[in-house]
Design a protein that fits this description.
The protein is α+β, with helices and mostly antiparallel strands and about 800 residues long. Among the domains are: about 200 residues, Alpha-Beta Plaits, CATH 3.30.70; about 140 residues, 3-Layer(aba) Sandwich (Rossmann fold); about 150 residues, Alpha Horseshoe (Serine Threonine Protein Phosphatase 5, Tetratricopeptide repeat). It has 35 helices and 17 strands. Strands 1, 2, 3, 4, 5, 6, 7, 8 and 9 form a 9-stranded mixed β-sheet that branches. Strands 10, 11, 12, 13, 14 and 15 form a 6-stranded mixed β-sheet that branches. A two-stranded antiparallel ribbon has the order 16-17. Strand 7 and strand 8 form a beta hairpin. Helix 30 runs parallel beside helix 32. The longest helix is centred in the N-terminal third of the chain and has 21 residues. The two termini are about 50 Å apart.
Length: about 800
Amino acid sequence: MSDDESAQLRPEIGHVLFVDIVGYSKLLINEQSELVRHLNEMVRGCSQVREADAEGKLIRLATGDGMALVFRNSPEAPAACALELSRADQAHPELALRMGIHSGPINEVTDVNERANVTGAGINMAQRVMDCGDAGHILLSKRAADDLREYRHWQPLLHDLGECEVKHGVVVSLVNLYQDELGNPACPKKLSAAGKFSKAKPARGRGAALAVVSLLLAASAVWFFLHQRRSGNEIADTTPISKNSIAVLPFRNLSTDKDNAFFAVGIQDEILTALAKISGLKVTSRTSTEHYQSSPENLPQIARELRVAHVLEGSVQKAGDRVHINVQLIRADKDEHLWAESYDRGVADIFSVEVEVAQAVASSLQAALSPEEKVRVETKPTENTDAYVLYLRAREYQTRPTGLLQDYQTAIQLYSQAIALDPSFAVAHARLSTTLAYLHLNFQPTAEIKTRAFAEAEEALRLRPDLGEAREAHALCLYWTAKDYAAALRELEVARALLPNNADIDEDTAAIRRRQGRWREAIADIERAAARDPHNSFFAREVMLTHWMARDWPAAARAGERAVALAPDLPLLRVEKSFVDFWMRGDLRPLDAALGAVPPGLDPDGEATLARWDAALLARDLPRAEQVIATASAVEMITPFGTPLSKEYLRGCVALAGGDASRARPFFETARAGMEADAAAYPLDAFRQAQLGLLYAFLERKEDAVRQGRRAIELLPEAKDSYYGPCLSGMLALIYARSGEPEQALDLIERLLILPGPVDHVFDGSITQSDLRSRWQWDPLRDNPRFQKILAGPEPKTIY
């Protein structure tokens, strides 16, 4: 396919309204013509149609007994148009309409008559949704309904119906749209006949939904600690388990060469990825399953914990260029084997095994693949065996839970080697792009890395425009490196349609909305992601972080307990959660206990050292802080915002916290050379500039300090980033406080105390009452009456 053809077929998101005349085929020809004429007149009279048409954002498709209207301007347009048609239809009792709405990927093409036409899953799904309805119904897919729920005025009109099986065995979740005399409030006959309908009720608004989720999280946290079992943590959940749900447990590595362990991990991950592209399945993420053993004895219990009906388990043995793979699909409630197969193949044939397993699982669970899904699952990523093995190695490093800089650097090297062997390896380009973008966000924000990340994403899209991983990579480049949040959200919507089981997209959406200052939506998004993948400890952690940014300490504490219960083998996660206890009550005892449970050798990027040092200074225990630095094995410590701090800098802080500026100065001067060089090497990294500004303040270089603090704000202002921006404002407030500008510092503090965002652990610029009371950095303000008044009062309510 040529580049021009690929560009023409590149999908975009369309908001589709499918309209059908009920009973059309039973009418006489002249009656059919008359009804179609009435329908066309009604459509032309719709304000939504006229507006979209005027903007060039509408495509109309005649379907004989109705039409499809593809809006490209707003997710609200199809629903508003449907209500207009329902109102107009009341004047034509002989015209019985049913309508279906879905937002999904479309491709605009030119048909044989040289007219604009549309293909794609968005059109197909809208028709399937419509086919579930009767006369008068306006039915929406859950995807389209979720878009409308973001707007308060739509919430009372949306009524959940449940699931319905449609063409090719695909199961869709339906929502009924009706209001007063518009629409049809009755249960569709297709759902009633299937026995899947319980009385429809209005979908809850965001506030009520969050309250319910918060209660469930609290209950779950209590349940975890009362009913924790050796094999894992079983979650009390009464929602029905989908019959097409499946978890892929870690594959057992039977290779005599333990260096081949990555191969078993890679095969499991690739099979899971293939299954996740099938919309008829509900696939649990790897993050939720990675803590379980291969082939466990208590399989029914694990399935209940993961909320799945089926489990796929297997083993991999690699010897030279030959691979032996055993796979078995199990119905969990009865511990019954539904399907099993053994494969003896060369490494070159591994991908065909992955495809065969995915297709066999889908067939066993009666989840038919759409034509588009079949192509995506069966498309071989590379013909080069060596490139594929390098890709699997890289993927293992990229997905390690430790999050170490060296792991991402190794992954980048391995992906690059795979691409060198096969430049057409699209998914390797996409994974490399994502890793580079993450490196830019957290460690090395250089223009070179940003440019390369975009180039790899664009190359992946050029090679395969329909590759969901490429769309996701491009979205993350827009988000992490370009800070173009609106464009990133649009790209994520396309990725969501191509990767229907990828809950990471929900989490990314929540994170972007935090940056946009859309905090209520961000909370709803991340709660939705966590509910969709309830055993994902990363999502539970993100729920905690989002709530602590909003200073909702009880909700953050509940989410933190849940995250820790899901990942008890991650002691640094317990440390993070313990900061919530400090912010909520000023209590350092949980933090000290959590740090005491961290194994002595566990200190990735100096994270444990930095937390121990910070906890000692919060307690004003200077000898303990000195001891932490003296015994640290890490040469430098990385802050939560990616800024490296040397031991000399930490020693200077301990001295200054004790009021000994003359002793602190040599340490700070030693640290200064490295921090200045680091800030010069990364001139666009706002946090490196702010940290250097704080160092200057400690050295009493007021003008340099304020200049650096303001430079950081210019690089990433609050208007551009509602999370990092306020954090940098917190750093500037501290610089003012240490530079003899108390009023400017207090102006910022008072504003930031009611603003979501400027809260983080082991962070100088964290703005909470507990931080202001306990951190030595704020000591210059202790005698200020305005500062004392802030500390004396209750913590003000965060407004968002």
